[in-house]
Amino acid sequence: xxPAHAFRIxxxxxxxPEPRDGGNxxxxxxxxxxxxxxxxxxxxxxxxxxxxxxxxLPASRRWLEVTLTAEYASGEEVTLVEAETVALPHRLxxxxxxxLTLVAAGHSNPTIAEALFTSPRTVxxxxxxxxxxLGAISRTAAGVQAFQNGWLKxxxxxxxxxxxxxxxxxxxxxxxxxxxxxGSPETAPSSPKPLRPVRLGLAYPAGGPAGxxxxxxxxxxxxxxxxxxxxxxxxxxxxxAVAVDADVYDPDGISATFAELRSRDVDAVLMSYVFDExxxxxxxxxxxxxxxxxxxxxxxxxxxGADPERFRTVFQCAPPESNYGPGLVRxxxxxxxxxxxxxxxxxxxxxETTADGGQIADAETLQLLEQHGWETRGVExxxxxxxxxxxxxxxxxxxxxxxxxxxEFLPSVLASLLLxxxxxxxxxxxxxxxxxxxxxxxxxxxxxxxxxxxATVSGTYSDPYGSEFRRAYAERYGDSPGLSQAGLAxxxxxxxxxAWQQSTDPSEVSGTVAxxxxxxxxxxxxxxxxxxxxQSTIAYPEETNxxxxxxxxxxxxxxxxxxxxxxxxxxxxxxFRWPASCEAGDS
Length: 587
Prior knowledge:
Blueprint: E1 6-12, H1 25-33, H2 36-42, E2 50-57, E3 62-73, E4 76-86, H3 94-104, H4 109-115, H5 120-134, H6 139-149, E5 153-154, E6 198-204, H7 211-230, E7 239-245, H8 251-263, E8 268-271, H9 277-287, E9 291-293, H10 298-306, E10 314-316, H11 324-338, E11 347-352, H12 363-371, E12 375-381, H13 386-398, E13 403-407, H14 411-423, E14 429-433, H15 439-445, E15 453-456, H16 464-477, H17 485-503, H18 509-517, E16 521-523, E17 526-528, E18 539-540, E19 551-552, E20 554-559, E21 562-567
Parallel strand pairs: 2-5, 6-7, 6-8, 8-9, 9-10, 11-12, 11-13, 13-14, 14-15, 18-19
Antiparallel strand pairs: 1-4, 2-3, 3-4, 15-20, 16-17, 20-21
């Protein structure tokens, strides 16, 4: 920082800072002409650990952007004061900044006019001018911008009660003057300020068809939270898990889930997949805190690309499902490279869920199959009722393909179709996505799962990182984790914690979002970074040829009741085996 335009100083909670040489004219002016030292001491009397505001220097007519942070240094309570000279945002005037501060506090035009000794008409004009300068669609939106960005003025010519719940209200007394510093003759010392835990919302289904996945996610997240808290948490603050039973099945349920999260005052949200992505993205953008999800959604990329400001807080922690098609072709190339085709026709048939984000057979995949010499026999929807599954089984058996690709996220639904096919001696290689990662799948399928091939764009590795996670999970919960969501949730907590550590204050959304965008984290499910501009991780080897930069799309086969990874290198630990029902050479 240029000392003429910025300074950084530590104030002990109950006394003046150490003697200074006075070499920084900006610091000297702030201490001599403003109440900055009182504000720094008063921070420990508020409910906040970090407060930002714009401070007017009356002597030089300059403005400081000030950040006060409550910290512990060598066991002592201190306030870190960071300041930099700035121009008022969006060419606001000092008076407009006062009006904006009171708008952010929730006051009407007449109330603001009375407090500032002017007319309601003048305030109305000022509010419209402020909206225009900020590009805000409403006065409420302008107030939210002010709150989120620290565009709050001090001192204010109003009593503290008019500042309502704004963070700066605790820095001044009822007359608008900063209260006396702790330990001064004007006030008795108070008890140490407890640092509020960082509240992390965990929005996972506790029951229903996706309940097993929800339990996996919740366990993985809690394991990571406990590890981080045991190491001191986030700058001395523990992470508090705020678990919400998420209804992932319909729009009203998704909206109700986010309403509950808002009421619990969370600092960020982790969630898995839902069955109405559009509603989820709308609610995630509206909640106003970082939301990390695992929906593998092309719609996420489209939403962020079309309106990056609106969806700036929404991050996808798994590559999109558009990578499943190229992954399938990679598996078919693997069959060719092993020379195990045995004269079988090069045919593929698709059976796909009707849920958002579960379709592989798009135009790009079909074209890619054709280029690799594979014929598509058909694409059908999977309807989850016994009669429909029976008719579907008959159609599959009437026109069998060498590879049958089935996409369905719910283990019970997928198992019902595959068990019917096994009972009817289907001779196709079964290739599916994601769902066998849930332990419930093998439990429902039993020996009939043998030979099933499946892929996931985010799976838990069997390298030292993944092995250590599985060991810790088994010790904690008494059974093994699945191969996707448990590791994903574990990694997402660490990604979120790293961003909080970098941004200083978890309640400061802009800094946390900026930290997330610069994330570089190697977890148990691969590497996480959001540098593409679409706030989504990328797939290896489909979107990058560097395994250190993305999440590997792992391809597994069930062999003797265990999941063996067929690739990609360097993560494979087994080779493909033709299922007994369709031995190589069988035509």
